[in-house]
Amino acid sequence: MQYTAVSEVSTLVSTAFSTKWNMSQLLPYCVAIVALFFLKLSLSSQHRSTNPAEPGQIQPRPWYIGHMTGMISRHTHYFNDLSKTHGVDIAILPMPLGKIYAIWDIHLIQSALRSSAMSFDAIMMQHARGLLGLNERCLEVARTGMLRDLMRLTTSLLSGRSLATISVDFLNHAAPVLNELGARPTYCISDFYDWVQTIATLATTDTLYGELNPFRKDEGLLVDVWLFEAGLRRLAMNIFPAVTARRPSHARDRLVRAITPLFDETISDQSLLPTLTLKRVEVIRSHGITDPEQVARIELALLHGATVNTVPTLFWTLTHVLACPELVRDIRREARTYIQPGAEIVVPFSVLSDSSPLLMSVFRETTRLVNSAMSTRFAMKDALIADEHGREYLIRSGSTVMMPATAHLSTDVWGSDAAEFKSTRFYGWDSRDKPEIKKRRAAYMPFGGGKHLCPGRNLAQYEILGMVLAMVMAFDVEDAHSPNKPVQIPQLDPARMGQGVGKPTFSKPGNRLAAKLSVRTGWENARWRFTV
Question: In which residues is heme bound (predicted)?
Fold first, then answer.
């Protein structure tokens, strides 16, 4: 596989720098590293395919490293740049250690996602050691069935009534913050993004760990969640992480130490764990992994998956709504039939799932604009994929396939206003028989596609809908620095590799989005409760 040389270099570098050497001792390692690198380059050039069924190449600028440096500097937007510059549907991107297939055409993407030759599990396994620090035995067990079983279980538990229960659990863990704010006439938030991030991350950990949640005792762990997330790309490379990914590596280790006791049967009451986590731990142990630390490392992946895109999407949905007073008014009008002010505000799950078409459209439209997810697969065998005209392209076995969601902003798909926020754009989304809707559904892929749709996509959706609904109904929100003016939507920073949603970027250091919350008349001291 194409990542073998990277692993070899990583091993040599780690060995060399983990021991005290003088320069004469270190020199052979340096020579070996350079020799391995150029040997791989040579082999890659000699064996580069010229099969006419393969797509054409986009040559890197500068030679060999241009695509790699472009991805590092521009992240997911680099693929937008390539699409605009070259205007192709699919291409090979030559890389120092092999090649990548990049696909932009929505029909080719859907064909690739449906192909049995394309594996997402293989991508996860490539990076599991670097990201999570799993030992070799755990990696082998994951490859031979544990990962598959965990995905099946998680998908099952995040659907139907269980989905409703877990969604409501999250919202009820977040509700005390709203209740506390409702007891104050006004409240100023100096950094609205940090405030949203803290509330949502803490509610997520409550949902995953229940009464045993260590994040309630040490809120510094909330910072570690995002230090870990910020270093995912460097951790995944796994090239001397003690130097290249020191802060995220230390944050990961602190998170692992914090949750490890939850999975030690000798010191914790396992029955106190919520069902989702408890059932996942049972699957892990059924595969022979009983070491609490290794269980914790596996479950760290669930915590990451539950926060990495949900939290920024919640922020962007809130700001897109709050920036438009007319939209706030319309959402309140829609919800008024089901939610009235009072001492206790009870919100049935059905209000979120069935009775809020405008709010649902707003969520989907926000996601379309801010989500630049990269669907990545590994070709386990040669595969042919076809466009809408039946033209086939060959994808070679052992290659990485990257499929950016550039169609989210395509004027061909969404119309001339594709770059604008239109709150009602997703009305009629379930009318699958309409050609326009079918085309848009194929292009809309914030949660992946094919066999590997994100199992937590619906949970994230209902968590966000519930939080936005409560904020809009209970509070008037304005820019803290500009009285009587709505908050402004910050600039979106491009999503980095490994992320689906970018964070806000601010023009000056310390210049964060500040918001002033005022309790609406009749909603003072209200207690929020979400029910199944």
Answer: 454
